[in-house]
């Protein structure tokens, strides 16, 4: 079926651009053998569409990193759903740490009225959201401003982290996989996220469905099983299952910020997901 092969190869090129070009994953995605995928990759390489790598392929043009300003309006409803659930975890008097990014910025928007709250952040978005709040004390870690993400990175931010602990840490990501963890464009970003996570026992990774399973860049931070992955209804169950298999708590938030049961087997409720929403401010 030549036409089916052409459509599959076109899809493979697009997936490689978005970071997915592993032979085993592509084989499972298309329901064909690994040998078929290897033949597809060989033909795409000959045509100049892809470059072969060990175990897969990669796009010839690096995946471009969009600026924070470009991302503000993307997946707005998904980010708001995630932010609403995350805000429901935070209680009066807590000290929380927010990563840079638009989803953590959406979370900051939900925190205006939390009494006696201290928010420490590495991002300009959260700073701008909370600048006019009368009830929230806002602190910035400082460091070097990274223009594309409008987040602070570098030794000064890292040094400030060493002197603080937090009730909760909320991280963002450009992509996340169960195997490699958090994907970012800059190794300094992933290093900072690792340090942020060490300063609290409760770590939440906020990532809408389009980021789950994506590998757009080559800088990584591991994602321990003790963390909670918070996403929205657009996330595919097949993409979430590898995280659950590793013991990661997965929360899928609806538009109201309410966690919904796992959507796998009929009647199945994931115990780790069900346990997290039961916790209120503690």
Automatic annotation (TrEMBL):
<dbReference type="GO" id="GO:0003700">
    <property type="term" value="F:DNA-binding transcription factor activity"/>
</dbReference>
<dbReference type="Pfam" id="PF00455">
    <property type="entry name" value="DeoRC"/>
</dbReference>
<dbReference type="InterPro" id="IPR014036">
    <property type="entry name" value="DeoR-like_C"/>
</dbReference>
<keyword id="KW-0804">Transcription</keyword>
<dbReference type="InterPro" id="IPR036390">
    <property type="entry name" value="WH_DNA-bd_sf"/>
</dbReference>
<keyword id="KW-0805">Transcription regulation</keyword>
<feature type="domain" description="HTH deoR-type">
    <location>
        <begin position="4"/>
        <end position="59"/>
    </location>
</feature>
<feature type="compositionally biased region" description="Basic and acidic residues">
    <location>
        <begin position="265"/>
        <end position="274"/>
    </location>
</feature>
<protein>
    <submittedName>
        <fullName>Transcriptional regulator, DeoR family</fullName>
    </submittedName>
</protein>
<dbReference type="InterPro" id="IPR050313">
    <property type="entry name" value="Carb_Metab_HTH_regulators"/>
</dbReference>
<dbReference type="InterPro" id="IPR001034">
    <property type="entry name" value="DeoR_HTH"/>
</dbReference>
<dbReference type="Pfam" id="PF08220">
    <property type="entry name" value="HTH_DeoR"/>
</dbReference>
<dbReference type="InterPro" id="IPR037171">
    <property type="entry name" value="NagB/RpiA_transferase-like"/>
</dbReference>
<feature type="region of interest" description="Disordered">
    <location>
        <begin position="261"/>
        <end position="282"/>
    </location>
</feature>
């Amino acid at each position: 079926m030549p036409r089916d092969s052409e459509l599959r190869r076109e899809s493979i090129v697009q997936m490689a651009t978005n970071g997915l070009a592993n032979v085993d994953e592509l084989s499972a995605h298309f329901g064909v053998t690994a040998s078929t995928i290897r033949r597809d990759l060989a033909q795409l390489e000959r045509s100049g569409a892809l470059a072969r790598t060990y175990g897969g392929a990669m796009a010839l043009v690096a995946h471009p990193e969009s600026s924070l300003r470009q991302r503000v309006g993307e997946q707005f409803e998904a980010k708001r759903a995630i932010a609403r659930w995350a805000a429901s975890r935070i209680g009066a008097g807590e000290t929380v740490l927010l990563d840079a990014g638009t989803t953590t910025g959406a979370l900051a928007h939900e925190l205006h009225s939390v009494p006696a709250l201290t928010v420490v952040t590495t991002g300009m978005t959260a700073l701008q959201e909370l600048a006019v709040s009368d009830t929230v004390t806002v602190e910035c870690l400082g460091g070097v401003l990274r223009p594309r993400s409008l987040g602070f990175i570098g030794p000064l931010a890292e040094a400030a982290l060493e002197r603080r602990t937090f009730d909760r840490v909320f991280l963002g990501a450009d992509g996340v996989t169960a195997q490699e963890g958090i994907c970012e464009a800059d190794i300094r970003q992933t290093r900072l996220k690792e340090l942020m996570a060490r300063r609290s026992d409760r770590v939440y990774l906020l990532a809408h469905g389009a980021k789950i399973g994506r590998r757009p860049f080559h800088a990584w931070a591991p994602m321990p099983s003790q963390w909670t992955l918070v996403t929205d209804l657009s996330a595919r169950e097949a993409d979430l299952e590898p995280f659950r298999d590793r013991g990661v708590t997965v929360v899928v938030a609806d538009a109201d910020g309410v966690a919904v049961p796992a959507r796998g087997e009929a009647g199945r409720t994931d115990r780790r997901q069900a346990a997290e929403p039961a916790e209120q401010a503690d």
